[in-house]
């Protein structure tokens, strides 16, 4: 199974343990893009709504396209009664949007699963002149606040983290948007602190694509040892989180 489809196998766990984004990020994004009633927005791969509520709550005409059938079904259960909510269960790469155009297209840790040429050229074509492309992601640092625990966890990874397929991180170049016609590219950062229990961090780790595909017996051994390591350290792991927002404009 492709990594970009693997999240559809754990919709309930994904919904419960995947983090949300910084409130200030959404406040600035909504103001920057002028989102509200009368504006049309497309979210790429919303998962189970980790970045949906603040945009949907503006009263905009919200659309989403979600590859995962089970993820899309959960989105319908959560938001289907909202009159401004629409979702399509399909692959953005091949989906035909017809004459639809959007004032903003945004992605919360999704666009990197799409080949760069398609991601930027297709979103550019789908945006109205002056429209906004917004791309967000979160990077967690649990080494700085828990250095001793961090090294103990690395031993667990060394012994038991043996995924069947390696996931190569960081290959998507967000700044390359300007090579496809986008202008006014910028990056904004927001900071928060998240405290996990052993159970919470183990479950959260189980939502990472390359952790889901660890084969047995390593999978059970990995998660059992990860949990026991954090329990032994006081049942607490602190993560310093950086929420990153990339912005670009389609010229008027």
Summarize this structure as a short list of keywords or feature phrases:
globular; 252 residues; 10 helices; seven-stranded mixed β-sheet; alpha/beta; single chain
Task: Report what the structure shows.
The protein has 10 helices and 7 strands. Helices cover 35% and strands 26% of the residues. By secondary structure, the protein is α/β, with parallel strands linked by helices. Helix 5 links the parallel strand 2 and strand 3. Helix 7 (147-160) packs antiparallel against helix 10 (218-232) and helix 8 packs antiparallel against helix 10. The chain is globular, with a radius of gyration of 19 Å. It has a 7-stranded mixed sheet with strand order 3-2-1-4-5-7-6.
How much is the radius of gyration in Å?
19 Å
Query: How many strands in all?
Result: 7
* % residues in beta strands: 25-35%
Question: What is the terminal separation in angstroms?
Answer: 41 Å
**How do the strands of the widest beta sheet line up side by side?**
3-2-1-4-5-7-6
